[in-house]
Amino acid sequence: MAKKRLTQALQSLMKSALKLDRNLSVNDRFWLWRSSLISSSASPSTQAGFILPTVTLLLLMLSLVLGVLIFRTGNRTNQVIGERQQRQVYNAATPAIDRARSKLEFLFTQEAIPTLPSEANIDTALNKDDPYKLPDETRIDLDGDGSADDPAWVFTYDSKGDTTSDEDDVTVVYSILNRTTGNDNGTVISLQDDDETKAENLVVR
């Protein structure tokens, strides 16, 4: 939260500086330029008038540079956090993908299904517990109809590889969906419907 507020404050400062630069008139710019050309041999009163615009410009430039550095650091930090989260999701999804692949390989090589199976043929095969429910898996009710007969499973595993702990720290739920249509109280669900409706009826995206 503090980092977000700091970034917002720096962005506001940069916008204000750019706005100030756009609002400077030609006379103001000429005065600043003329002030910067005052030599060290000028009178004390002239030198005193030179300090204020010089200090103001230095503070403005330092603020802009500091703001850009902090802004880029914040962006890089967010990028690293995002990459780490993506890696965690990938690591969690990899075993589920491997299990789903092995089940599909068994389905199309070992099951007695037609050469060109229908959606019903595939659903009927996948809904069998043996051999599609592995020992450490539990079949779940994915569509909420009160019956755990959906092609969906849940399992846990230790993503850290901590052999000294008996507790698994990651729970993975995956399913194998092949329906392109579905029924919801007599209403036909198709691929053109919204994702939420398709998910509730186990229709593929």
Can you offer a commentary on this structure?
This protein has 205 residues and is mainly alpha-helical. It is 58% helix and 10% strand. The chain has helices spanning 2-23, 26-36, 44-110, 119-126, 129-132, 195-200; strands at 138-139, 152-157, 170-175, 182-184, 187-189. Strands 1-2-3 form a three-stranded antiparallel sheet, with helices on one face. A two-stranded antiparallel sheet has the order 4-5. A hairpin with a 2-residue loop joins strand 4 (182-184) and strand 5 (187-189). Helix 1 (2-23) packs across helix 3. The longest helix is centred in the middle third of the chain and has 67 residues, at 44-110. It is elongated. The protein starts with a helix and ends in a 5-residue tail after the last helix. 6% of the residues are buried. The mean pLDDT is 79.
Average pLDDT level: 79
Strand order of the largest sheet: 1-2-3
Query: Radius of gyration over alpha carbons?
Result: 33 Å
Distance between termini? 36 Å
The proportion of strand residues reads 5-15%
Biggest sheet architecture:
3 strands, antiparallel
- Overall 3D shape: elongated
Label the structural class. Answer: mainly alpha
Percent range for helical residues?
A: 55-70%
Number of helices: 6
Unreliable residue stretches: none
Briefly summarize what is shown.
The chain contains 6 helices and 5 strands, in the order αααααβββββα.
